[in-house]
Amino acid sequence: MPKQVLIINVTRMGDLIQTGPLLSRLREEWPDVAIDLVVDRSFAPTAGLLTGLRQVISCDFTRLLDDCRTQSKSLVTLMSEMTTWAAPLRATGYDRIVNLTFNRQTGLLASYIGAPDLRGITAGPDGGPIVQNPWLSYFTDLHRHRRFNRFNLVDLYAMGGSGPGAFSPLSVTVPADGGAWAEGFLRSPDRTIHRWIAVQVGASDVMKAWRPEYFGRTMACLSRHPGVGFVLIGTAAETEAIELAKETYRADGGTAPILDASGQTTLNQLVGLLSRCQLLLTNDTGPMHLAVGVGTSVIDLSVGHVDHNETGPYGPGHWVIQPDLACSPCGFDQICSHHACKDRLVPEEIANLCLHAIGLAPIPSWSAGVRVYQSGADADGLGSFVLRAGHAEAGAAWYADFWRRFWYEDFTGKPSRVAPILEIAPDRDRALAWMKEAAEPLRQLEQQARHITALTRRHPLPVATLQREQALLRKEREQLLPRMMAHSATGPATVAMIRDIHNDDVVGLTRLADRHMMAYRRWQQRIARAKSLLSAAPAKIEARRSPLPMASSAALE
User: Fold this and answer.
1) Partners of 383 in the beta sheet?
2) SS3 label, residue 411
3) Closest Cα partner for 288 from 317, 258, 260?
4) Best exposed site among 36, 207, 362, 453 by fewest CB in 10 Å?
5) Strand blocks (E) in 390-437
6) What's the pLDDT tens digit per position in 114-124?
7) Which is it for the CA torsion 353, 356, 360, 364, positive or negative?
């Protein structure tokens, strides 16, 4: 019988489009797999653009969450409604459920439907949310170590929901009616327009939107090149920003035609329009992922709290411009009073990159203040970004590459095919000294956890002793945590340990103590492995630089 998989993803348009490679990876894992997708009713049309689904199952989750918040219905009534709706899914007998919506409500839903293999947010024994699968745990805690993250959300979905495999691009079906509408919309009496550039001035959050007047200046620069025209996309809520961009465009002498499709397109029409443009210049938005899915090149202006490593355009053929500021990207919970990052991006330079992307100019030069990345795919089949202009802080860049490789090998149990780092860590001596110092406290924590596990097996249970030992363990752990988190060489592994400690998906005192002991052991082992890799780096570098003939790779290890 074919395997059956249920994916739960009820958040945003972009998140849905980004599940495409997961569908491909599941088909690679199980060629005859049947995949169902649960979405919010408002996103059912978006889900219909994906290929490889058996069925799209929708529910008005927005109303449900509103009813929960406002308590307009009793909890008993809400639970009754949801269990009735989910009963057919529960009866399906799925082999795997992948919950990509990280809230408690969908965790309860995933656990109620049930499957032998539950991944993502599920409900623990007490109903509280827990995270199953290391890739999806990593995603849950991404905000704690995003400075060192090099995994795109697309890959975290695919690796967490399935596993490693061949690179698979985003893919979106272009509906016939949408394509036909776009052909008519773009039919200009000016036959000299050969290249249409789509522009999205707005975004769902003003924090991640470049200034509208800068879009206008950029388009004005581009309009000086014959054969270029513009298509403005966006929602009706972005009208004010779009009008400001158009005013600036005219004031700066823009002459090329502008077709304003904002607030006028259906989803199918938007997809058709993007598929017939040569480029999309945009903030980080849902349509950005649609453009990638139909094969249109993207220039992503990564400002505010947006980090292109997480949500940037996936796969080869795209560009990202990121401000070079110490505070960029800012935290999701921060309120910025200056938005200075947006002023680092120079419209004339953005215009030159647009010209390069559509084949009308060479790669431009850049002033200080920005980092320019080109998207691609790496040797492990994951999305990547390569720095083409600007400078990244050396320590952060080194550890980002280090942890990218470390987590791939830790989570998959397979060696990474990405070329190893050839430079020594900038703080190598200090890092190794700290890791040596931390080794004994880590060993003692594991020993204490092992002792607590032994206490839980005694009869009668030594309650007072157990409480005292647990309090001591907790105190020593909390004293060590800030120092472990402060170091680039130990922080990310410490974040993973904290998640392990709080992922209580077992029942019974002894089983819980065993689980915590394993979390301390895994923490100790990961730090030891990181130390070993840092220590071994110079020897490997010298071996690679040696003029002597190379033996086998095993000999070099």
Assistant:
1) 377
2) helix
3) 317
4) 362
5) none
6) 999 999 999 98
7) positive
State the burial class of residue 150 (Cβ atoms within 10 Å of its Cβ: 0-12, 13-18, 19+).
buried
Tell me the CA end-to-end span of the chain in Å, nearest whole number: 44
| Residue 215: count of CB within 10 angstroms of its CB | 30
Residues 6+ apart with CB under 8 A from 269: 177, 178, 181, 182, 185, 261
C-alpha closest to that of 274 among 297, 258, 256, 257: 297
Taking CA atoms, 140 is separated from 106, 134, 135, 400, 495, in Å, by 14, 10, 9, 18, 11
Angstrom distance (rounded) from CA 39 to CA 101? 10
Which residue is it, tokens 């304003």? Answer: 260
Q: How far apart are CA 543 and CA 557, in angstroms?
A: 10
Q: Peptide bond before 329: cis, by omega within 30 degrees of 0?
A: yes
- The 10s digit of each residue's pLDDT in 414-442 is 999 999 888 899 999 999 999 999 999 99
The contacts of residue 45 (CB under 8 Å, 6+ apart) are 267, 268
Query: What digits encode the pLDDT tens for the residues 293-343?
Result: 999 999 999 988 889 999 999 999 999 999 987 766 766 566 665 677 788
pLDDT (tens digit, 9 = 90+) per residue, 514-545? Answer: 999 999 999 999 999 999 999 985 545 444 43
* Average pLDDT in the chain: 90
CB 403 within 8 A of CB 385: no
CA distance 96 to 61: 22
Distance CA 158, CA 115 (A): 19
Alpha-carbon Rg for the chain, nearest whole angstrom, is 26
- Rounded CA separation 282/302 (Å): 9
Please identify which residue in the block is written with the tokens 């839903």: 109
Identify residue 221 by its one-letter amino acid code: C
Under DSSP, the state recorded for 131 is E
Cα 107 from Cα 129, distance rounded (Å) = 6
CA separation for the pair 202, 240 (Å, rounded):
9
Query: Which amino acid does the sequence have at 154?
Result: V
Q: Is 15 left (phi over 0), alpha (psi -120 to 50) or beta?
A: alpha
Say if CB 359 and CB 374 are below 8 A apart. no
Q: Are 280 and 296 in contact (CB under 8 A)?
A: yes
Pairing of strands 370-377, 319-323: antiparallel
User: Is the distance from CB of 153 to CB of 16 less than 8 angstroms?
Assistant: no
